[in-house]
Amino acid sequence: MKKIPPRKQSSCLNCEAREFAWFESVSKGQLVEREKNRTGQYLLAANEHLFIEGDEHHTAYTLKKGWAICYKQLKDGQRQIVHIALAGDFIGYKSEPDEPIDYSVMAVTDCELCSFSEESMSELLKVDINLIHRLIAIQTKQNKTCRKSLSYVGQSQAKNKVAFFLVDLIERLKRRGVDVNSTVDFPLSRVDIADAIGITPVHLGRVSVELSQNEIVECRHNSLSVKNYAVLKNMADSDL
Amino acid sequence: MKKIPPRKQSSCLNCEAREFAWFESVSKGQLVEREKNRTGQYLLAANEHLFIEGDEHHTAYTLKKGWAICYKQLKDGQRQIVHIALAGDFIGYKSEPDEPIDYSVMAVTDCELCSFSEESMSELLKVDINLIHRLIAIQTKQNKTCRKSLSYVGQSQAKNKVAFFLVDLIERLKRRGVDVNSTVDFPLSRVDIADAIGITPVHLGRVSVELSQNEIVECRHNSLSVKNYAVLKNMADSDL
DNA sequence: CGCTATATTGATACAGTTCAAGTTCCGTGG
DNA sequence: CCACGGAACTTGAACTGTATCAATATAGCG
Predict the structure, then answer these.
(1) Per-residue pLDDT tens over the stretch A163-212
(2) To which H or E segment does residue B71 belong?
(3) Scanning every residue of chain B, which has its alpha carbon at the shortest distance from the alpha carbon of A144?
(4) CA→C1' distance for A67 and D2 (Å)
(5) What pTM, to 2 d.p., does this model score?
(6) B202 CA, D24 C1': Å apart
(7) Cβ-proximal residues to A92 (8 Å cutoff; 6+ apart), any chain
(8) pLDDT tens across B88-126, in order?
(9) Domains detected in chain B
C-alpha cells in the first residue's frame, strides 16, 4: 500500500464518495476542521490486501475510490465474501481496539483510501455528536445488509442467489450515479461472485448462461449489462 | 404481550442479564437514574411475536429472560433465522426511526423483556457517553456474529454447520453460567436449527443421528448434551 | 388417554459439486 | 501489431450432498 504524501492528498471538500461515507454528516463549514483528524490517504493496488483476518490493526478506512472485497476464510480454505465495498464504505472499524479484526479486505481494482487511527476516531467521536450517530447508522445498515445476505445465501437457490446479489449491487451502483441501463464496469470475477453467494464458480457459469439466454442479465469479462431488470428484481426474493 | 404493571417491575439493580446487556456500562450508582428511562417491562409468551419484519415499531428491547429467535422470511416462505436471542441481547434497535424493521422476533420460551422507546433512548444516549459506546460495541459484535454465520452457512456442509451453530450457542450459554457438561435445557426445535443453518429439518435429522452415534453431541427433545466438545469444536471450522 | 406436534426412516429425485479437458480473453514483450 | 502465455471462463460427464415426499413412530399437551 502506497501512502500519498500530505501535499498530494485530496481534500474531503470535493470528495465524491463523501455522501456515502462517515463524513456525510459533517457540514461543509466544519469539514476543514474534521479533515485534520484524517490520518492518511493511500493507494492500494488491485489484488493487494488492506488487512487480513486476525490482524491487530488499529485503523479504520473510508474507501474513496475503487472496488474491494471483505471476506472470511474457513480452516479448509473456503472463502466467503461478506461484503463488496464500494466508494464511501467504511471498513475495518472495531469498537474493541485489542481484538483482532474478523475479516480480510482485498482490493479488486486499484483503490484510494482515507485512514483514521483509533486515537483520531475517538477524538472525532468526542467532538462531534453527529459523527457518533452517523457511525451508529452505518453499523445498523451493515448489520441489515449482512442479515439479508445471510437469508438468501441460506435459503434460496443458485439462480435466485445471483439475482439477489446483482440487484443489491446494482442498486448501490445506481445511487452512486452509474447508469445501469448501459453496460457498466464490473470488475468482479466469477470466483468472486461465487464466493459471495455460496456456490461453485462452475455452477455459477451454468446459471449465468441461463440468465443471459433468457435475456435477463449478461455478466462477464469485466462488464455487466442488465437486459431485463424487472425480471431480475422479481427473481430476487421469489421463485418466479 | 403482557405489560407488567410498574409496581411489579423488577429493578435493573439485581438483573442477572445486565452484564450482557446495554446497561452493562452503567455503574451501580447511576443505575437507579438510568433505569427511569426504561419505558416498560413485558412478558411475551412462547410462540408470540415481539414484532414482525416490516413493522414500523418504535421500541428497542433488552431480552431479560428466555429464548427468542430473530428471523427473516423470503417471498416463497423460506425462513432464515438470523440470530438466537438469549438473556441480555438487545433487539429491535433501528438507527432510523422511519424505516421499518428488517426482521421478525418470536419468543421460543416464555420471555421477559425491558423496553426503550425511541425518545428514551435518545435521552439516554444524550446524557451518558458510556451508553453510546456500549451501543456501538453491541452493534459491532452483532455484525461480527452475522458475518460468521454467513460464512459457515455459505461455505460449509451440513455436519459442520451444525457444529458451528452449536459451538456458538454453547459458548454463549457458558458465559451465562450454564453448566454445559451436564444436559442443558435447549428449547429450539429441529426446524428452528435447520432454518438457522440453511438445511432441511429432515437432513438435519440424519446428521444428528450421526453426531449422536459418534458420541459427539445429542440434541433432542428440549435438551442438549455434549459428549465430546473437543471434537465438536474441531468440526466447527474444519473438515475434521 | 387420545390428539396434534414433532421427530425418524426410507426411497427417490435433483441441485450443485468435482474433475478434467477445452476455449476464450487479455496483457506483455518482441 | 502480432504472437505468446497465463488467467479467466466454458463445457461435459460422473458423482454426491441435500431436498422431497410419504409413511411411521414418538413425544408432549390438554
Answers:
(1) 999 999 999 999 999 998 888 999 999 999 999 999 999 999 999 999 99
(2) strand B68-73
(3) B102
(4) 33
(5) 0.95
(6) 14
(7) A50, A51, A57, A59, A60, A61, A101, A105
(8) 999 999 999 999 999 999 999 999 999 999 999 999 999
(9) 2-146 (2.60.120.10), 156-237 (1.10.10.10)
